[in-house]
């Protein structure tokens, strides 16, 4: 793996439901301290300490975290978090995770964390390409939404013109 992604967890609130560490270290304690203090106003958060990035993705009441070597950048850790969020939601959404106690999903989901960490670390070019495609798709979606809003605005303007035309016709017919 080259140990670029070294620790990850999934938590509900501040209770870690599943975690995986490539090896031991103080980063687990730092990651858990950060979990206690995450800003509620954001869905992505990254903290850098001692040559490592502590990246968090918050979705609903769940927090996904990965600790990575700072030199790999932020794209791969964020892609990992998105992959884990999707897999966790597909597997546990609306079910077991809502009531699971701390570390009760380690045995079930810990291997998935390891597997995804391995994949993301071993295939950075695929992750980068995918992130690029997602960014382009998001940009296209934004442009399309702009066009739709403009069309809807024009539709309202046309309706107003038609209403005004009808009012004028009524006034002309009434004055004859």
From TrEMBL:
One GO cellular component term, please give it: cytoplasm
Q: What does this protein's UniProt record list under function?
A: Involved in the targeting and/or fusion of transport vesicles to their target membrane.
Per the record, the GO terms for biological process are:
protein transport; vesicle-mediated transport
**Which parts of the chain span the membrane according to its record?**
none
Organism, scientific name: Eucalyptus grandis
Q: What membrane topology does the annotation report for this chain?
A: Single-pass type IV membrane protein
A Pfam family that this protein carries is Synaptobrevin
Subcellular location per the Swiss-Prot or TrEMBL entry = Endomembrane system
InterPro entries assigned to the protein according to its UniProt record, in alphabetical order: Longin-like_dom_sf, Longin_dom, Synaptobrevin-like, Synaptobrevin-like_transport, V_SNARE_CC
Q: Which PROSITE patterns match?
A: LONGIN, V_SNARE
PANTHER family the record matches: SNARE PROTEINS, VESICLE-ASSOCIATED MEMBRANE PROTEIN 9
| Domain (V-SNARE coiled-coil homology): residue spans on this chain | 129-176
Supply the alphabetized keyword list.
Coiled coil, Membrane, Protein transport, Transmembrane, Transmembrane helix, Transport
Family indicated by similarity: Belongs to the synaptobrevin family.
* Protein's recorded name: Longin domain-containing protein
Q: Longin domain location, by residue?
A: 9-113
């Amino acid at each position: 793996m080259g140990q670029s992604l070294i620790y990850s967890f999934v938590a509900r609130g501040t209770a870690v439901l599943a975690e995986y560490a490539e090896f031991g270290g103080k980063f687990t304690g730092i990651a858990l301290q950060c979990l206690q203090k995450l800003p509620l106003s954001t869905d992505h958060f990254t903290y850098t300490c001692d040559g490592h990035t502590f990246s968090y993705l918050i979705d609903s009441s769940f927090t996904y975290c990965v600790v990575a070597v700072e030199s790999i950048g932020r794209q791969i850790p964020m892609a990992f978090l998105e992959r884990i969020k999707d897999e966790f939601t597909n597997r546990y959404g609306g079910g077991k995770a809502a009531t699971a106690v701390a570390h009760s999903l380690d045995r079930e989901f810990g291997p998935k964390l390891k597997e995804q960490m391995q994949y993301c670390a071993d295939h950075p070019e695929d992750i980068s390409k995918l992130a690029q495609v997602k960014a382009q798709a998001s940009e296209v979606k934004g442009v399309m939404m702009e066009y739709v809003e403009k069309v809807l605005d024009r539709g309202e303007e046309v309706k107003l013109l038609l209403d005004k035309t009808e009012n004028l016709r009524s006034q002309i017919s009434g004055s004859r």
